[in-house]
Design brief:
single chain, alpha+beta
């Protein structure tokens, strides 16, 4: 039952992403609506900094993290990290960091020539995300979001 419920939530989240009318709508949907679909308290979308690029993204809802931050947080070669007991990181969750006691960090496969991306799901419930939980649904969600971002930005693979 729990897996079926999770699957239904992720499917609803994917449909919400695919219904975005603009890039800005996609980002807004990601950072607001997905929290409701996935039953989490906060969601953050981050990209790694690139030398010479602005330190602020011109689209609200996206944060810049340090270069190499995604590998540092998730682990090189890993797609998802589930952390059961954390203190929310301000660099990732911004003003909502104080709420976060457990998080799921998802690598966003956007494009080979794009900075690394991160989708962070935060919960105020410590232990909500456990390392032993299945992660294939989170991986699927991250791949859909990465493809959607790539499509809106017209980036090559």
């Amino acid at each position: 039952r729990a897996h079926r419920s999770s699957q239904s939530r992720v499917h609803a989240a994917v449909l919400a992403l695919l219904s975005a009318h603009t890039f800005e709508h996609l980002i807004e949907t990601t950072t607001t609506d997905l929290a409701v679909h996935l039953e989490v308290d906060t969601i953050s979308l981050c990209v790694e900094s690139v030398e010479g690029a602005p330190t602020r993204v011109p689209v609200a809802g996206i944060s810049i993290i340090e270069a190499g931050g995604v590998d540092s947080l998730i682990g090189r070669g890993r797609e998802v990290a589930l952390r059961p007991y954390v203190t929310g990181d301000q660099a990732i969750f911004g003003a909502a960091a104080g709420l976060v006691r457990s998080d799921a960090l998802l690598r966003l496969p956007i494009a080979s020539n794009a900075p690394a991306g991160l989708l962070a799901l935060g919960s105020r419930t410590a232990g909500r995300f456990q390392p032993g939980q299945p992660t294939e649904l989170f991986g699927f969600l991250a791949r859909v979001l990465g493809l959607s971002i790539r499509s809106w930005l017209d980036l090559p693979e």
